[in-house]
User: What shape does this take?
Amino acid sequence: MQKNLTLYNFNTSYSFGKEEKKEKEQSVTSKLTRLKESYEKEGQRRAVEGIIIVHDHGHPHILLLQDNSYFKLPGGKLKPGENDVEGLIRKLTKKLSPTGTSVADSPWEIGDHVSTWWRPNFEPTLYPYIPTHITKPKECKKMFVVTLPEKCKFAVSNELSLIAVSLYEIYNNSQRYGPVISSIPALISKYNFVCLNVDN
Assistant: This one.
């Protein structure tokens, strides 16, 4: 049975700004170096990401962070002992909300856990399962659907852009968006999208 998911218009419901926010270097080499350092200190890296869905002219779009030609979902590494939902709210608030927004005042409502991805080694490739020969995967990344209220303000780092990309652009386009992001249309196909427009 499909679940209803209410979406608000990307262009009329939300406002967007830029701020000085510190961003870690996004090159593959630097990310894998940080992963290795983290693994040696804390063991398997636990990460969470949010699938934030909006609409434009009645078509569902996913919010992505863009750094030049690199795209990613908002989220990040959990602290030791931190649960998935609390950690995702903290990371979304840090990356997407105006400076000074408290976690308690953040607009994020964390919904269904729709996917888990595993990084077997200190390499770029992620899998939606643990390969049979791997006993100690280096990273576990969980993806959650995140819903928004009809109004909220976004503020991202000056180094990044927050863009809305349609499902039909993402679907089966792993060459541009990678296997994780290109899997999203299938992951959220269980929802029936209810698209609403709100006047400013």
Remarks:
- The helical segments are 10-13, 28-42, 84-96, 167-170, 174-182, 184-187.
- The chain has one domain: 3-196.
